[in-house]
Amino acid sequence: MRAALAALLLTFLPLLAHAEPVEELKLLAEHPVDGMVGGNLSGLALCGDRLWTESDRDDGLIYRLDVSEPVWKAEQLAIDVPPPPADTGLPLMLRATAHAASVIRGGILDFEGITCDGAGNRYLVSEGYAAVLKVPVEGKPSWLKIDPAIIREAHAQGMLRRFNAIFEGLTINAAGDHLWLAAERQNRGVLSVYRQPGGTWGCHGTCILLNEGGEEMQPAQLPGAHKAARDFSDLALYNGKLYTLERNIFQICRRNLQTALKEHCWSFADEALIPQRQYAQKYGLAEALVVDATGAWVGVDNNDWTRADGEARPIVWRFAAPRGGWDVAP
């Protein structure tokens, strides 16, 4: 037995010795955000040259960010949200639980992501209803007509089964006719839906690109690091690739657009977890992601928690693009 174990170690130790560590991203700037009524910044979108955000506690507001000063100002835009669809495919018990929780914390719709198409139309995903709201540049907001069978199938395959772990992010292509949705955790996954003739949204082949459970070890920089559920907290689309914000392991990962399979990851743990930036939480709080040619914006939903340095406002970080750019080979 000992001889067999020694032989096994000799086989795999060279591979471990040559494993490349995950590259750490460099923090360029940190911006507290003032002016969000409910706090809880839970998404970011770049529309042209303007950043937008939303809160999972504010059902009737989105925010344009004034970035002219180091402390950013959230400028309110009221939106007239119509009643959500009667049937989105999400089980009634999960919708009822979200409704009950909103009585205490606010935000029955629980908006958890925002994205923009090339025309500047904004889209928000409701975790409370597993639905997507379109906020056009001109005209009234409306809910996308996503086939409820898609949500039911995802639920049947192990996703969208837990309260507060439904959809946590979304991104859309410039044409505004192809949408990706991130199921948060237990199981996490990526769904892909297309606009169909007549305005409904459905699948081209399969809608479920990725479905996975399990746990991953948190970074050693986090006090009390432990294995935590694999999760997604936002999605971004850049240069023909999908990017996932993986909150519990403090990483941004590039993924194949057609399969959502992981190609390469970068860590932001070194910068996010210096002592003064830490929260008294066992999990990551990054919930918003935008990727562009020169870097990434990462938004932190502090969830009313105060950092070790006393900062109690939502935060947006700017990280430089990795060495060699985001297109570095796997």
TrEMBL record:
<keyword id="KW-0732">Signal</keyword>
<feature type="domain" description="Phytase-like">
    <location>
        <begin position="39"/>
        <end position="186"/>
    </location>
</feature>
<feature type="signal peptide">
    <location>
        <begin position="1"/>
        <end position="19"/>
    </location>
</feature>
<dbReference type="Pfam" id="PF13449">
    <property type="entry name" value="Phytase-like"/>
</dbReference>
<protein>
    <submittedName>
        <fullName>Esterase-like activity of phytase family protein</fullName>
    </submittedName>
</protein>
<dbReference type="InterPro" id="IPR027372">
    <property type="entry name" value="Phytase-like_dom"/>
</dbReference>
